[in-house]
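Quick illustration for those who missed Monday's session on complexes.
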Amino acid sequence: MVRLSTPLLAALSLVADKVHGALDVNLDDPESIKKAAALVAEDLLTFYHGDEPGMVPGILPGPPPDGDYYWWQGGAMWGTLLDYRHHTGDKQFDDTISEAMLFQVGPNADFMPPNWTASMGNDDQAFWALSAMLATEVGYTDPPEDQPQWLSLAQAVFNEQTHEDRRVPSGNCEWGLRWQVYPSNNGYNYINTIANACYFNIGARLARYTANSTYADLATKTWDLVEKLGYISDKWDVYDGAHLPDCTDINKAQFSYNAAMLLQGAAFLYNYTEGEQIWKDRIDNLVDRTLEIFFPGDIAFEPSCEPGNCNADMESFKGYTARWLGTTMQLAPYTRDKIYPVLKTSAQAAVKQCTGGDNGRFCGFHWTTGTFDGEIGAGQQMNVLGALISLLSPDVAAPLTNSTGGTSVGNVNAGSDEPLVPTFAPITGGDKAGAGIITALLVAGSLSAFAWMSID
Ligand SMILES: *[C@@H]1O[C@H](CO)[C@@H](O)[C@H](O)[C@H]1NC(C)=O
Ligand SMILES: *[C@@H]1O[C@H](CO)[C@@H](O)[C@H](O)[C@H]1NC(C)=O
Ligand SMILES: *[C@@H]1O[C@H](CO)[C@@H](O)[C@H](O)[C@H]1NC(C)=O
Ligand SMILES: *[C@@H]1O[C@H](CO)[C@@H](O)[C@H](O)[C@H]1NC(C)=O
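Prediction with 2-acetamido-2-deoxy-beta-D-glucopyranose bound:
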């Protein structure tokens, strides 16, 4: 471990703060941004205990009530730290990142570890795959040969989610990717934007990385469905999803990560197609509307929950949105003039939130308010980290491809073809007790990850 222990860090920061005050940053100076980002990243890692003896690598404390975080957010955090590494060159977390991601791949090397399958959503699984894809694109250190490789992990998840048993077989929502993987879970009949947008995004990236057009075709088919169902409105609002049988009861809540996931995927396809007009139009419309809806006064805001209460999931969306706008500036460089000034104003507001905690440096959530709000967490740290590093995006290397230096080894057939029967962590005791525990797990699972979206 290179990372300092929490008490030592806190003690050091207390001393430093006497001199420097809270998070100081000059957003016109890349070195200053990197220094501030390093402090925010260190504080982020204080929420992670998976590298301590007896703890499970990869995950943040949870799920509720055991801690604030669902499994997916661990996956999202490793992606955030990979982006941090790529934008700053700081490799101090490499051992932690690799150990964490490889620990959660599961027996089929597809991010379906038995501990978590009971509550597995396609979006949960995809967030880990997105981090593996990012590892591929930033040229992150490849795992040892006897371990699953980053690219093949992303392909495994994409292949499994292409499979018909994850999808709606017929009717108006035909080909829709279900929110939940297993029929036993509440939400199996919810065809939501994020699950489909994640699949679209991974497909767009696999297409560009491998130059295999099959991925682009599947991604495009998914975009077309999401658009047809009206999840993207005429005004380019992006809604949350709708239920079977016909996906017409649209839940019009808008969360920034839905729009940003589609936008980033569109930017990959725009770049992959060498600037096709149809993807340019989609980028332009999504950028305009995203900045309008989620950056009032040019400061990031979650309109569907921030006026009330955002949960720990929602409290992490601003960071992804900033980073994916960052990627958009790389893959469609003409968008920089529109996006960059907004991200800068937003980041300036974000760092003003970073005056909390024992070291006077932890960040709050409500960036538009201008003062620390006391609401700290892993999501809040990821948000500010995303806000800071996205300002560096135009000047760092764009995502690699197989022909521009990427080294990760793929496998087009990765993933499991087995029928979808949940596998659980070994249960000790008699059959009856076992069955009872499985029922309890399934019930608990139905309330699990991304639970707020379920309006069943
Ligand atoms: C699954 O849970 C057990 C018991 O808590 C733990 O020992 C193991 O490391 C976990 N595995 C994963 C992949 O989370
Ligand atoms: C392209 O990807 C598809 C979908 O995974 C796969 O079936 C096909 O074999 C790939 N083609 C090549 C040439 O790798
Ligand atoms: C694709 O991305 C690269 C890397 O940033 C960039 O140089 C190129 O101009 C992009 N292509 C288009 C069509 O914008
Ligand atoms: C690109 O991918 C192909 C097929 O997967 C592989 O044979 C080739 O070696 C890769 N090229 C590079 C430069 O890695």
